[in-house]
Structures are given as structure tokens and as C-alpha cells.
Amino acid sequence: MERPVPLFGDLSFRRTVHQGLSMKKAAPPPNDVFQIRCPKLGHQIHFSYCRTENDGLPCSRTLHCWYGYFQVEEYLRRELAPEQWSEAFEKPVKPKIVSLVELIEQARKRGGTGES
To answer: Predicted confidence band at 24 (pLDDT cuts at 50, 70, 90)?
Structure first.
């Protein structure tokens, strides 16, 4: 009998995952059928997107968002080179307002119009 796809708030799934964390063998990341709500984008997203969202590197929030579902830090430390880990997780994140101003400036330059 096939089980329904677990959702973000499915406590039985979270309990199973947390119980599995004490096992010696690390669980693999969830497949693309399983999705959680992304606080950055505001909708459901799968791990494979989070894994490459930042120009091929993981999103800076990946560790925070996925820690309750599998051993994400252990997995990514195995998968990433030390330089990639540093680039993805140890670099300060720009404040949202700075990112927005940069995007506006880029759009103005591309459009050739805009106020100075």
C-alpha cells in the first residue's frame, strides 16, 4: 500500500526522520516528490532546487530549512568542496534592501532609461 506524500507539517514524518538521525548511516536527501515551504520564495520547493539555487551552490538557508528532515549538514559537507561550503554558508548574506537596490540598478542599465 502506497503512503501519501508527506507535507511540511506532517508530524509523523518529522518524528520518523528525527528517530532516524540517531542511526549510524546518514539518510539520503528527500527525492523531488517531497517538498517544503521555502521562506525565501514563499511556496513549496524540493531539495534539489535548494541544493543549486545559488549559482550552482546551495541556498544559504538550506541548512536551516532542511535540518528537520535529514542530516543536511553532514550530506552537504560530503558533497561540497571546502571552498564551496565557505562560499555558500560562511559568507555574510546581503540585506534584502541592498539586493533590491542592486536589481533596480541592473534593470535601469539594461533598459537604458531611468531616473538618476
So the answer is: very low
- 41: cell is 520564495
DSSP string, 34-95: -EEE-TTTSSEEEHHHHHHTBTTBPPTTHHHHHTTTS-HHHHHHHHS-HHHHIIIIISPPPP
Side chain identity at residue 18, one-letter code: H
Q: Name the pTM for this structure.
A: 0.62
Angle at 34 between CA 90 and CA 9, to 5 degrees: 85
Mean pLDDT of 1-23: 47
